[in-house]
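To: structure subgroup
Subject: Chain for Friday's discussion

All,

I'm putting the inputs and outputs inline so they're searchable in the archive.
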Amino acid sequence: MQTDEKLDFSKRLRLALKRSHKPIDSAAELALQFNLRHPNDSITTQSAHKWLTGKARPTADKVETLAIWLNISAHWLRYGSPNDVKPKQATGARRAKMQVEKDTPLNEAEMKLVAQFRRLSTHQRHLIVELTEQLVIEQEIWPGQS
């Protein structure tokens, strides 16, 4: 398994943990909470640390437990969404859509939104960016649920 795949899994796992009902912020807490839910072999804090740092990826049964626990798609957790394609690997249609979105001028509502965004504090802008990223990811994980 390539290191990039492990790192990508790690990013998705950390995002899911951050968004969970009770955010998990340490490998020890991840291991504890995971072991409470997984019916098979337990994991060590070191294993959880490897998942969080992109040094290892769990087996399919462990991914399934994580997905059920975190209320996310096991496929997304393991592989990412189809929209995770890097721009250089984008299909012709996707590349064309991305170019149209890039070249389309902002409408009046979008310009107003940008103006309002610029008046916010740095912290508030960061929160809005985080929220927007979360909403986009939600659309990719659960398409059709708007």
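Points worth raising on Friday:
Residues 83-141 form one domain.
Helices lie at 3-19, 27-37, 45-53, 60-70, 74-79, 92-103, 108-119, 122-141.

D.
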